[in-house]
Amino acid sequence: MEEVARLLRPPNAPPLPHLHKPNGGGGAHSRDWLHQSLPTGDLPAFREAPAFRNGRGCAAAPTIHVAMTLDATYLRGSLAGVLSILKHTSCPENVTFHFVAVSPFHDLGRTVAAAFPSLPFRIYRFDDALVRGKISSSVRRALDQPLNYARIYLADLLPRAVRRVIYFDSDLVVVDDVARLWGIELGPYVLGAPEYCHANFTAYFTDRFWSDPDFPHALDGRARRPCYFNTGVMVMDLEKWRAGGYTRRLEGWMEVQKKVARIYELGSLPPFLLVFAGEVKGVEHRWNQHGLGGDNVEGLCRDLHPGPVSLLHWSGKGKPWLRLDAGRPCQLDGLWEPYDLLLRRRDQSPFAVDV
C-alpha cells in the first residue's frame, strides 16, 4: 500500500508551486479559502476553491478541454474532480471545462462559479428526450438516468471548434497532470482509454446476445481483439466522431436493446463496447484505477490495482462521499476526502439516495 501512503498527503501539506490563494487585496476573486458560497435552491453550500495559476512554460501549452456532467446527486463529486484536476496540472488556466446538465440548469452553473470564480467553463443543456425512449432498465438505478448517456452526444453538444475532449465521470479524482493524458496520440482511433483485456468480455452481454446468429458478428473485423474499457475516462476525437456518425451507431444498439432483444444489463457501457471495443487506443492503466466503488450491487471496499496511479475512480455503487457521511468509509475513500469542497452537511442531504 505504498501508493496509498504516497497519495494520502496530510491536509496541511504545502501547496504545489503554482497554487495561488487570493490575499484579500480587493477585486472579484479576493476571497478567503473558507468563504461560504451562497446556497442555490436546494443545493448544498461549497467552499470557494483557491485560485490556481499557470506555472512556467505555459504560454505555448495547448488548451485542454474536459467534459463532465452536472446534477444534484453527483455535484459534490464533480466539484471534487475539478479541484483535483486544477491542483495537479502545471497549466491550470489552460483547462476549459464543458459541463452537461439537465436541471437545475442555472443553479448548478451558479454553484460552480461560486466555488471556482476564475474557472473557464460552459454549461450545455442536455435534452433528456434524446434518450428517453431508448433507455432500458439495468442493474442499478443510477445507470438508467438520461444524463448517464450524455457522453454519447458530446460531439453534438460541444462547439465544432472543440476537436478533442477528455470525458471524465463525476466520481473520480485526478492525481497527475492531466496534460499527460491530453497529449496521447490517438492515431486512427476515435477513442483513447485504458483497456482491460483480462476481463471476461462475454459477461457484458446476455446469453440472448451470444446465441443470436447475427449480433456477435458485429464484433468481427476489429483491428484487435475486443476488450473491456471503462467509459468514465475517455479521450475523444470529436472530429472523427462526427465524421463517422458514431452517435447514431450507439443509438442503433440502444434501439436493439429496447425494441428487439435484451442484449445487455449495464446502461450506456455495452453500446460503447459494441461500437468501439478492439478499436480503442490503449492508455496506461494508471489513468483509470477504476472499481473503487465496488460492484454495482453491494459496493464493497476494494483496493488499488497493482501499478502507478494517476486517476482514482469510484465506479460501482459505493461513492466516497456517501460512505464518509455515513461514518463507514473504505480506506481509499480517504484519498477522495481532501478534494471535498462541501461546506456543511445537512440532515436531509440530496446525496443520501440509492445510487
Which features characterize this protein?
355 residues, Spore Coat Polysaccharide Biosynthesis Protein SpsA, Chain A, seven-stranded mixed β-sheet, 13 strands, transmembrane, glycoprotein, membrane, EC 2.4.1.-
Quick description:
With about 350 residues, this protein is of the alpha/beta class.
**What's the β-strand tally?**
13
Which class in CATH terms?
A: Alpha Beta
Could you say what the CATH architecture is? Alpha-Beta Complex
* CATH topology-level name: Spore Coat Polysaccharide Biosynthesis Protein SpsA, Chain A
Q: Cα-atom Rg, whole angstroms? A: 20 Å
The succession of helices and strands, N to C, reads HEEEHEHEHHEEHEEHEEHHHEEH
How far apart lie the N and C ends?
A: 28 Å
Query: Into which percent range does the helicity of residues fall?
Result: 10-25%
* Mean pLDDT across every amino acid position: 86
Main sheet specs: 7 strands, mixed
Structural class: alpha/beta
Classified in CATH, the superfamily is Spore Coat Polysaccharide Biosynthesis Protein SpsA, Chain A
Shape: globular
Spans of at least 5 consecutive residues with low confidence: 8-40, 346-355
The portion of residues forming beta strands comes to 5-15%
Q: Walk across the major sheet and give the strand order.
A: 5-4-3-6-11-8-12
Q: Multimeric state of these chains? A: single chain
Number of helices: 11
- Tally of domains: 1
